[in-house]
Amino acid sequence: xxxxxxxxxxxxxxxxxxxxxxxxxxxxxxxxxxxxxxxxxxxxxxxxxxxxxxxxxxxxxxxxxxxxxxxxxxxxxxxxxxxxxxxxxxxxxxxxxxxxxxxxxxxxxxxxxxxxxxxxxxxxxxxxxxxxxxxxxxxxxxxxxxxxxxxxxxxxxxxxxxxxxxxxxxxxxxxxxxxxxxxxxxxxxxxxxxxxxxxxxxxxxxxxxxxxxxxxxxxxxxxxxxxxxxxxxxxxxxxxxxxxxxxxxxxxxxxxxxxxxxxxxxxxxxxxxxxxxxxxxxxxxxxxxxxxxxxxxxxxxxxxxxxxxxxxxxxx
Length: 316
Hints:
By secondary structure, the protein is α/β, with parallel strands linked by helices. It is built from 14 helices and seven strands.
């Protein structure tokens, strides 16, 4: 998208904006981090509430870093933008001299810009090379997954990450098609998937939607990254600090719910023990017993907010 204003490309309505910023309980002198900065929608609202505090915006997408950096420029020295995966947040902030923070936000999934930028290969609506990398510095792309993964692994990904009832036939069809030559583009993959899905099941939406979701999650190690770093993010919070996570997939939400629960009640002693002997102490509490979801007005105005769930953990 050379020559276009990426700042404008990224300006979309952030999901659960008011609910998330309210949940962070921003203090004017606090330190806050957005680990999935995107276009900076949540970031702007946090920065407007700061006076002597500081905001760190982290994103692995170079386009997001450029766009958000421009959008947040009016806040001057209150903001530092870093290109990095949020799983490396601790190391990135330590380089800035920061060990503890007052709040962390993760808005998972793909931004509207990434979906709508056809050349990135995230969407089945545009004909493009099979890419799907959020960080284009990495080597693994969706092309390698589609053309090199064994059928059994493709089936597992589409079944588990895509939650597609036709996972087995789609995986089989992909392997058959690539035997005649590599599947190079999103539209070529669309045709392979369409042929594997019964006509009556195509009425529920585009037949490629769930497979593309599965490929994206695998390409960017989304679930692995989330599960591997949430405990560390909780550890980075100051007492009273909050971690807010917005998910768009049932597996993501389950990971967040379970890790928050484990941090709240970490004791591993058998229930019949009269006293705790494992020594594991609660690190805080889940503020949201049930996830916060978008209201009817938001889902009507922004269809991509459907399925979003916000969970919040507060450090003791």
